[in-house]
Write a structure and sequence with these properties.
Elements (H helix, E strand, L loop, with lengths): L14 E7 L4 E6 L4 E6 L6 E4 L8 E5 L4 E8 L2 E8 L6 E7 L13
Antiparallel strand pairs: 1-2, 2-3, 3-4, 5-6, 6-7, 7-8
Length: about 110
Amino acid sequence: MNVMTALTVPDIDDVTVVDFDAQEERIYWADIKSQTIKRVFINGTQLETIISSDIANCRGLALDWLSKNLYWLSSENDESQINVARFDGSLKTSIIHGIDKPRCLVLHPAKG
């Protein structure tokens, strides 16, 4: 039987999306009030801010646990884009611009 206890993490303001990395047992989330993407182990330790800009109106977050890439969907000034970075926030870049009113982001790492 799998049981997950409640997680108490400081500095959570306005979370819009959440994803989970089962291999590293970390929860990732986007907070649009603080304009950050953060992560923490499921036991509540090692809270980290991994992206601290470029997440305006973040409405999608997806983890590719095979390549260790994090993707997020952001919108600013009526332009939406898909961005990518490594799990630690390095190598951040925008990969697709000008998407018309996207609502979410989903990956299938096993299929590429």
